[in-house]
């Protein structure tokens, strides 16, 4: 006897939604009446692409508020995206890390 796939609600019958693969069903969370029966084993997006930020290496960065002189901030922003990471790298060099 073959195992049947879950039936999606009619409101999900949208032609723009990707067709679910067996792998997507295997990794998805399974819940009944709001109670999780089987937790998700990972995120797998359309076409097998994992989205989002990569997991933190050894420890997550902390968000802080820092006041900088306008000319310093302008100089780092002038090089484009990634200016916050460049400031972090500069600070690590100064403190010897």
Descriptive overview:
By secondary structure, the protein is of the alpha+beta class. It folds into 2 domains: 10-48, no CATH class; 61-97, no CATH class. It is 29% helix and 7% strand. The protein is built from 3 helices and 2 strands; from the N terminus they run H-E-E-H-H. The protein has helices spanning 22-27, 70-78, 83-95, and strands at residues 30-32, 35-38. A two-stranded antiparallel ribbon has the order 1-2. Strand 1 and strand 2 (35-38) form a beta hairpin. The radius of gyration is 23 Å and the shape is elongated. The model has no long low-confidence stretch (mean pLDDT 80). This is BrnA antitoxin family protein. Pfam families: BrnA_antitoxin.
> What's the total helix number?
3
Poorly predicted ranges: none
Secondary-structure-derived class: alpha+beta
Q: Report mean pLDDT, rounded to a whole number.
A: 80
Helix content: 25-40%
Element string (H = helix, E = strand): HEEHH
Strand content: 5-15%
The count of β-strands is 2
Biggest beta sheet summary? 2 strands, antiparallel
- Tell me the domain tally: 2
Organism: Alterirhizorhabdus solaris
Protein name: BrnA antitoxin family protein
InterPro entries: BrnA_antitoxin (IPR025528)
